[in-house]
UniProtKB/TrEMBL annotation:
Entry-linked Gene3D superfamilies: Cullin, Chain C, Domain 2, Winged helix-like DNA-binding domain superfamily/Winged helix DNA-binding domain
Any single Gene Ontology cellular-component annotation: cullin-RING ubiquitin ligase complex
The protein's name: Cullin family profile domain-containing protein
Residues of the Cullin family profile domain: 1-158
One Pfam assignment: Cullin_AB
Keywords: Ubl conjugation
UniProt key word Ubl conjugation: yes
Superkingdom classification of source: Eukaryota
Length: 300
């Protein structure tokens, strides 16, 4: 008899063990995490998987991507929760193998869409500007997705073979994703519908997740750093502009005004805002109030 190699059996056992542990861990996390206590309704359907790197196939290169604020806020809570249970271990998030379901409301009805995290990031770029037409360059800044991956992701949303009506419209039309340019224009199709047997459906479900062949060029890492640098500069400029006008603000007010100013370019994460505030304090553009640690003062 020829059996499976011992190494394969050990990995398979670890995979099943991981899946069982994750079910228990998700339940425990939901019972203690701050987001659940703060009535974050997303937590009812949110789940994560923490997998042993040695047992599971490698998911490929790590890509940083802008996530919806609700998810962005939860990830540090998961890391803190996991750190308390397993001191010394470090989590690495692979967003390219994550997915979710969005409900899209068009003029014709409501539709549930299964999307990859990269597709969701692109769609969320219109959250604060639903009627706008966005260039490829603007979407690159908004999503933080490297150029080649963004082209492939956009292509899956503008030319999905199973749909007669596409979720996103664009101009000027091209033959392939690689022909998209910096000035290609994209906008949400609010006439979107699902057609079955020649009839318009007012409700429906579409799985839009496609297996994207992600780019592995070394240059992608440098490109990602350029986008992050540009975001940081825009965030610092906006903070200085706000503080110069207001002179004194608490952290919550500053974050709210900052997002309002930047939302037509991108929505800065809390982590980015914190890092840029610390940079501005270190370089004496602003300072913390001596009487209130959550308040900032503009330094002329």
């Amino acid at each position: 008899d020829v059996g499976m190699p011992a190494e394969f059996i050990i990995k398979l056992q670890q995979m099943f063990k991981d899946l069982k542990l994750n079910r228990d861990m998700n339940e425990e996390f939901r019972s203690v995490c701050p987001s659940s206590r703060n009535n974050n309704t997303m937590m009812d359907s949110f789940s994560f998987k923490i997998l042993s790197a040695a047992a599971w196939p490698h998911p490929g290169d790590k890509i940083d991507v802008s996530l919806p604020a609700q998810i962005e806020d939860v990830l540090p809570e998961i890391e803190e929760f996991y750190k308390k249970k397993h001191s010394g271990r470090k989590l690495t998030w692979y967003h390219t193998v994550s997915n979710g379901q969005l409900t899209f409301a068009s003029k014709n009805g409501k539709y549930d869409l299964d999307v990859s995290t990269l597709q969701a990031s692109v769609l969320f770029a219109w959250n604060h500007r639903p009627a706008n037409k966005l260039t490829f360059s603007e979407l690159k800044l908004a999503t933080n997705i490297p150029e080649n991956e963004l082209k492939k992701t956009l292509w899956s949303l503008v030319s999905f073979a199973k749909l007669k009506q596409q979720l996103i419209c664009y101009e000027t039309h091209v033959e392939s994703c690689q022909d998209l340019s910096e000035m290609s224009l994209f906008w949400i199709n609010y006439d979107f519908t699902i057609i079955r047997a020649g009839k318009v459906q007012t409700r429906g479900h579409v799985n839009m997740i496609q297996r994207l062949q992600l780019n592995t060029e070394k240059g992608r890492e440098e490109e990602n750093e350029e986008i992050m640098f540009l975001r940081g500069e825009r965030t610092k400029e906006a903070i200085v502009k706000i503080m110069k006008t207001r002179q004194r603000m608490n952290n919550g007010q500053l974050q709210t005004e900052l997002i309002e100013i930047l939302k037509n370019m991108f929505v800065p994460s809390k982590k980015l805002i914190k890092e840029m505030i610390e940079w501005l304090i270190d370089h004496r553009y602003m300072a913390r109030s001596e009487t209130n640690i959550s308040e900032y003062v503009y330094v002329a």
